[in-house]
């Protein structure tokens, strides 16, 4: 029975002040003893309901409850948001696998109660200078040479000062992961004692979180070289490295909006690096000093860099075929033709490929991740073209060199045809495209020759001014000469000396 406040007051007055029995109160007020029992001790007030204390249905046995918990824990470990157990799926599995005889609504209510009780509270953390650094990956869209593509952002953040380092890579692979570490350590000028990272397969071969069984071999070598320890986050627990989680969004919003247009990944990384340096003047909310001031304090506590930097490249030995081509990771790269038939060392970094012969750096390229692409350098083939000039117009290295049409049209005007064209390309290799363009524009003559261009390049200084040129005066004075002396000579001599 629900009562009004005035009746409740009378019940409480009779019971607490006049010390009447429940029977007597019921008789005086004309209500049931159950109503008096409910309200006399003040355990319940009219108009107020106690929260429902749900009970576990008898059909939810210990075995069934453990099965439901295991399904939700499996979702947490797999961390695939679009493929998780629904309450209906759990019910269907209980029926199929456990012979469950209860209703679907019973399972739904229990699963809903479990999910509502998830604790989303977090503990604020504090770190000592040099104690830890957090690492994470992100992705963003940019335009490189006019092509819209995804770049992968390696993000590193010191936990004490919150100083940041970000570097873009074409791929999120092992060599990029290691190269990002090395570049980050060099940017900070030292190494934090502990790295907090997620369970990426770039670092972890087996296990997860605190249950890491085995790390990747090359990452273990990097750890040993730079003398830091690791701490891995639990699955789907991004808040455990919350400092670096927001860094990806910061770079996207403050550097890459609107979408950046660059000619190379190196140009993009310079833009990002400039922002990282600028961030040191930033003051984080709740802190009294700038990030840069905190970094100055923290740097003294970082582990010093080793004398020799870690080589982050994938290294292979490859043979040079008859076209001067080396294969690496599905792509092909040219080398000087005197290396045909020899073995060279190829080092693949995150964004570049470098080729060595007997420890001599013989070629370097932007790394290609597109299968079966070939990159040439014209300088590798120019000696052979001088011997076989007829191939110049169809040579792939010439076409891929992207020689400006203005230079090629000028070369087609040269008198010796293909031979002169090869000589022109030699000058392009030696002096560069911009210099040749400048000189041929200055040689605005109807019959150009390669010798005239070469002489200008030889005699010109860095500013393009021509040295060793005899000045030609504007006004030339000519002295009149008398021809009478010649008449005398023709007549037989000087009569005055006869």
UniProtKB/TrEMBL annotation:
Select a single GO molecular function from the record's annotations and give it. DNA binding
Q: Pfam families under this entry?
A: Mu-transpos_C_2, Sigma70_r4_2
Q: Which PROSITE patterns match?
A: INTEGRASE
GO terms in the biological process aspect are: DNA integration; DNA-templated transcription initiation
Question: InterPro entries in the record, alphabetically?
Answer: Cro/C1-type_HTH (IPR001387), Homeodomain-like_sf (IPR009057), Integrase_cat-core (IPR001584), IstA-like_C (IPR054353), RNA_pol_sigma70_r4_t2 (IPR013249)
- How far does the signal peptide extend, from start to end residue? none
Domain Integrase catalytic residue range list = 125-312
Q: Please give the superkingdom of this protein's source.
A: Bacteria
User: What is the name attached to this protein's record?
Assistant: Sigma-70 region 4 type 2
- Which source organism? Mahella australiensis (strain DSM 15567 / CIP 107919 / 50-1 BON)
